[in-house]
Structure formats: C-alpha cells, structure tokens
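[Q] Does anyone have a clean structure-token version of this?
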Amino acid sequence: MTTDRELSLEEVPDAAAIQNAIDALERGGRLILPEMELTLDRGLELHSGVELVGQGEGTILRKGPGRVYPLSGYHNYGMCDVPLVSAAGLAVGMTVSVLDDERLGFYETFARISWIDGHWVGLDRGIAADYLAECQPRLTTAYPMIFGHGIADVAVRDLALEGNSRLQEVPMGACRGAAVYFARSRKIEVTGVRERDYRGEGIGFQMCRDVIIRECRVSGNAGNGLHPGAGSTNCLLEANTSTGNGKSGFFFCVRATRITVRGCRFEGNGDGVSIGSRDCHNLIESCALVGNRGAGLIVREAPAPVEVHSCEVAGCEIAANGIAAGDPQVSIPAGAHDLILRANRIAGAGRTAGIVAAPGARNLYLRDNQFAGCSEDAVVDGASLAPAPPAFVRGFGDHPDEAFRHLP
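[A] Here you go.
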C-alpha cells in the first residue's frame, strides 16, 4: 500500500529533510512539497514508486553554488573514495561529480558522499575511471537537482527549478546529469515542471524506456533543453516548450528510438531539433521549430550501420531558423534514408534554403510541404526522392520485447 505525505514549510528547512522524507517512502507514494523557495546543497534522489509533487510555480527549488575541489593526485578506477587537497565545505549526503580533463562523459563519476575523514572523501559508488594527476582531477558540486538511477514507476510534477548558473564554477556533464535526470529507469512521468538557467541540460535521461514528458518548460540552459539519451526507447514528449538553450532545443542522442515529439515549441536555441546516430523510428508532429540560431531540424551525419533512418516529420512549422550562420531550415546528410517530411510549413528569411539534402541521402519522401521566403525550396537530388512513403514503425506506443533488448 502506497503512502501520501504532505510536508509543511516547517518540515523542509533544507534539501536533506526532503531526501529523508523521500527515503521514508519505502513502498512508494506521493511526497507533496509546500509553496516555498529552497536552495539545494544536494540533488534529490527518487526511488521506485515515488512521486514528487509541488505547488506549481509556487514551489521553487534553486541549485546551490557549485564548487571545485582538486584531488591531491592520481586516484584509480573502482575506488569508493577520493583524496582531496581540502574537503572544507563538504558534508555527508551531498551529491558530487568526479572527473579530469580527459575522462569526461560516461567516464565522469556521479556519487553521494558517504563519509569524510580528513582530506579523504568516501563515495557511495566506485569511481568510473582512473583520474590522472597531470589532467587536473577534481571533485565538483555539480549534480542533477532531481534524479533517479535504476528505478521504475516514478513521477515529478508541478514545480519550478532554478539552475542558478552564474554561481556554478563548472557545468554538469550531460551523460551523468541534467536539472532533471534519469538513468537505466522505466515508467517515468515529468509533468508541469518549469526549469531554467541550469549550467548543463534541462531534462535528460539515459538508457530509459516508457518515459512521458508533458507540459514542461525548459529555458536558458547552457546545454540542450530536452535530451533523450543513449538507448532511450518508447518516449512521449508532448506540449513542452524548450527555448533559449545554448545547444539544441531537443537532442536525440545515440539510439534514441520510438519516440514521439508532439505539439512542442523549440525557439531561440542553438538548433531546433537534432537527430543523430541510430536515432530511428521517431515521429515529430505538430511542433514549432522557429527562430533558432542554427538549423530548425538537423539530421547529423553518422556512418553505416548507425545512420539515421525511419523518421517522420509532419505538420510542423519550421521557420526563420539559421539566423546566425545561414543554415537551412532542414538539413539532411549523405547516408540518411527512409525519411518522411510531409505537410510542414517551411519558411526562411530570404537567404536560407528550405530543405537541403546532401547527395547520397536516399528514399526521402517529401510531400505537401508549403514553402515561403526560402532562397531555394528544396535542394535535393532527384535520385534521393522516394515515389511513395517508406513503411516503418514510428513513435511511442506498444512495442514487442525486441524493441527493448538493447537496454540493461
């Protein structure tokens, strides 16, 4: 039997109190936060069956300052501790990242402090790589504000997250975190969340399945706004806005498949929507990709056998993009194939092309698109065009077990 618990303002003096309340929901349940503004000194970790709920924009969680703690020298893979020059300001229970100048991405370690003994700091998991003295090894207080690893049946609803980027000395690596982040998890819902100004990505997840992100607003982040990461499958992202982010408004990572993006707006980002290696069987429909500095929709080049294929873009407004470097509204590389673009409104600013496909792209089905104000409507080799729409499964839905066998 699950439990609902509603916290009063007096019960949440700090992030540790919220984490204790989450941990107390051993069999799952809803934890309801009051209207408040609270600065976090650690990320909030969800467990299976837990739903974290706020009072809309009346519940504001703000990331505390990010600091850098140099390691005193080399430390090796798998150890559940690190030696620091100084541990001043750290406390047991804080969430931290460990990395060096060479070991980044999935070689970055994200962990919780389990003990402190002088200048040695214990971690709740082994470090992900050897960190070398000559590569500036360091522990940082960069962390996702809300996260979960290896969990199921969780939700985050109706609250506001402030990333406080001006007080962050270093960014959070996208492979290990975002303002809201999940890894190796399933049956996740994030609804009604307003997130902004994080030195990293807005909402990201890696190797997850059965994810719903709905009616969220992410803005002003240093990285991508929305990022379904490596291997994530069967996701629905609906009625979201992603604006003013330093990189893409929406970034499909490696093998992000069977994803539906519907009724979303991507505006003022580096690119609007970016699709890359093995990102297949996806559907983007009824979205606005407008006013982005780079392309509205960019398909990234990837070698066989991980080239982009079997995606559809339908009923979208793709307009006034490429304002920084004159990129086309839609860019398709050689090697991409079995793509459908239909019934889109594609508008330039007089100096950018509508659709540009490199020679070697194939089986592209372009139908019923309306062009306005483009320097050229479609720069596509006739040999690349398909006479009929290619047949493939696309988007969020019921899929056989074989669609998930790549996940741990």
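[Q] Thanks! Anything notable?
[A] The two ends are 28 Å apart (CA to CA).
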